[in-house]
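USER: Note each token:
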Amino acid sequence: MNMLGASTPMKRALSITAVLVVTLLVAGWIAWIRVAPPKLAGSMRADIQQMRERVDIPGGTGPFYASERAIAAAQHVFSALPLVGMTRQELVAVLGEPSESIAPSGSLPRGRLNYRFDGGYGGWEYLLRFDEHDRVTKVIEKGLD
């Protein structure tokens, strides 16, 4: 026995356990930090492309408004993709640039991205909130009237 009262095999078992615990904690942390963007099925990629479709409405000033198909595609994409936990960079790589990007002034660490699909008669807006690590923490869905 040594001065701590534990035998050498017991110390070895405790050391191995400690190494395993630390390894699992580090692996979990790395997995959390490096969340890979989701793999997209062909239909999801098509919907993401469809979200960009814009149309002109009678009396409008050009193809500014989201088409009905774009609004429906956005509803499908934002309900189906696991956006919470993605980084801003991953999100933009998957969805493309948003219609609005607002970063609060001052030293506030959180920002947001707004994806807006306004059909001129209604539509949807998706407000994404980020934490201090630039990861999506919340997706707020708002109907437009």
